[in-house]
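Review this:
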Amino acid sequence: MCSNDAMAIGVIKVLEKHGKAGRVLVVGFDNDQSAQALLESGSLLATIDAFGSQMAVMGIEYALRVLGGMENKGSYTTDFKLILK
């Protein structure tokens, strides 16, 4: 499990270089466009979509509510979706 899809792509390249592709399952995070071909080929088992654009919108909305007097509870969660081939 990688922290993002860019790391997952790097891991896959290293595995391929050392003849270990397919022997280690790799999962990314972010559902970047750059990972789509690897998902289709099966080189990348899965990625997680955390809806980054929604995180930005929700973060701004939450900050505005706090500035408006709402108690800051410290965190806000968004949906996550497992993306498979």
